[in-house]
């Protein structure tokens, strides 16, 4: 779906391991299926958003929202790339979804809303990334 995410993921401002763990992570990024990497990344964002929503720290939710935005920014850049292999309609739908994620992120922060809708969207995309998942045709 978002093959360039692999290269963008290394640019994210997330904590990175050092030493052997860092080398192992580089091997995973070059050998693991990009859909599996995207799935794990979204799962991490779901976990981060859920934890931040329950956290007592006022900085937790803005930090989690920022990380989620960075993931969706990487997805958007990949989807907009001419070399992306996704079908055009799916690309357009995912780009539209990304716009919604950015707008909803602003609403969550500005209006102090629950991040549950963002969590739900990330989970829905995760379902589409699972092995055997295919895009469903539009109903007639």
Provide an overview of this structure.
- It is a single chain.
- It is built from six helices and no strands.
- It is an all-alpha fold and 140 residues long.
- The protein has one domain.
- Helix 3 packs antiparallel against helix 4, helix 3 (34-54) packs antiparallel against helix 6 (116-129) and helix 4 packs antiparallel against helix 5 (88-111).
- The protein starts with a helix and ends in an 11-residue tail after the last helix.
The averaged pLDDT comes out at 82
| Biggest sheet character | none
Helix proportion range: 55-70%
**Between the first and last Cα atoms, what is the distance in angstroms?**
25 Å
The percentage of residues in β strands lies in: under 5%
- Spell the H/E element sequence: HHHHHH
Please specify the SSE layout and strand pairing.
Elements: H1 5-9, H2 20-31, H3 34-54, H4 60-80, H5 88-111, H6 116-129
